[in-house]
Design a protein that fits this description.
By secondary structure, the chain is an alpha/beta fold. 48% of the residues lie in helices and 12% in strands. It has a five-stranded parallel beta sheet. The chain has a two-stranded antiparallel ribbon with strand order 3-4. β6, α11 and β7 form a beta-alpha-beta unit.
Length: 325
């Protein structure tokens, strides 16, 4: 009985930690406007400290800062749409993220979201541009077309609906969407709740092409070629998610890749784009992929081996060369 009780306590603690993590992610999105305006204020203060002679040399500077502020406020309106009913996204209605969860986060941390958490929010906005706007087409095609071509070359003779494709590290789900649009049975897996919240919004609630506007570059205060580049807008999604047949076998799954995918001989292809080097232990990733592929299945990979955890204190990181991989 004691063993069962200990297991129950461990399970409850794990569930509580997951709910608190979810609450922190949501809270980081909620803090976007405040965090962004605080950074903008630094530029306004710097401008105010200029002498009049120097202010007269950059007459449009303060107007541009006001434009950036307007863009930040607009982005936050998009974020509020992303967050609508998000507490139910990964949980049953009876298990939603409650105010108690948010209060527990605030009580435990006594601090706003970290810079790292806020960077993830800004990265998510840029990823919307890359994956779901016309502005990101060239970058998308450079990454996705080679792996799609590789899959079609090797499995194109088979009936698409009979081919099972897994995309770990699916991000906002565009590659998964493209495979499903061709009729393949495709599932995306993503660990980042920031990405999952945004992909859920795009795939399930953005029905019309270019129905949303975003300003993904407004946090880029340095190295801008032209002033207007920082406040350039993008429209998304560049294609309606409704273009996928309702009968299509298309899904996104949240969680740790190596813990979720344990059933051997399940997938005809595992397609990874900028994913393998996110592992603490890349050998574990490769063993998992080898196990879940059917005999004669394919791993199709594109991306560097930069190893996200390399050199970080208290973080395991096995850094192999391409030859070793």
């Amino acid at each position: 009985m004691a063993e069962v009780s200990d297991q129950q306590v461990a399970l409850e603690m794990e569930e509580r930690e997951e709910r608190e993590h979810f609450a922190r992610v949501i809270n980081s999105f909620k803090c976007y406007k405040m965090h962004s305006l605080k950074r903008l204020q630094l530029s306004k203060v710097s401008y105010s400290n200029l002498c009049d002679q120097h202010k007269n040399r950059i007459l449009g500077y303060i107007d541009n800062l006001e434009t950036i502020q307007t863009c930040i406020i607009h982005n936050y309106e998009v974020i509020k749409l992303i967050l609508q009913d998000c507490q139910y996204m990964l949980l049953n209605k009876e298990e939603c993220i409650s105010e108690a969860d948010f209060n527990r986060v605030k009580k435990n941390d006594c601090a706003p979201p970290t810079c790292e958490e806020m960077d993830k929010v800004k990265t998510t906005l840029k990823q919307i541009m890359r994956d779901w706007s016309e502005d990101g087409r060239a970058e998308r095609e450079a990454c996705y077309q080679p792996v799609m071509h590789a899959v079609l070359t090797r499995l194109g003779s088979r009936k698409p609906s009979e081919v099972e494709i897994l995309v770990p590290g699916a991000g906002l789900g565009r590659l998964v969407f493209e495979f499903a649009r061709l009729g393949y049975s495709c599932q995306g897996n993503e660990w980042s709740l920031h990405m999952l919240l945004a992909s859920n919004f795009i795939l399930n609630r953005c029905q019309e092409r270019n129905s949303m506007v975003l300003y993904p570059w407004i946090h880029q205060f340095t190295n801008n070629l032209a002033t207007k580049d920082q406040t350039r807008r993008c429209m998304f999604p560049d294609i309606s998610p409704l273009q996928i047949s309702p009968e299509a076998d298309f899904s996104m799954v949240a969680g740790d890749f190596t813990k979720i995918y344990t059933e051997p001989n399940s997938w005809n292809a595992v397609v990874t784009v900028f994913f393998l080097d996110t592992a603490h232990n890349i050998i574990e990733y490769l063993e998992t992929i080898y196990s879940i592929l059917v005999p004669g299945g394919y791993l199709v990979n594109l991306g560097p081996l930069l190893y996200h955890w390399a050199g970080q204190v208290n973080e395991m990181s096995i850094e192999l060369s391409y030859e070793e991989v």
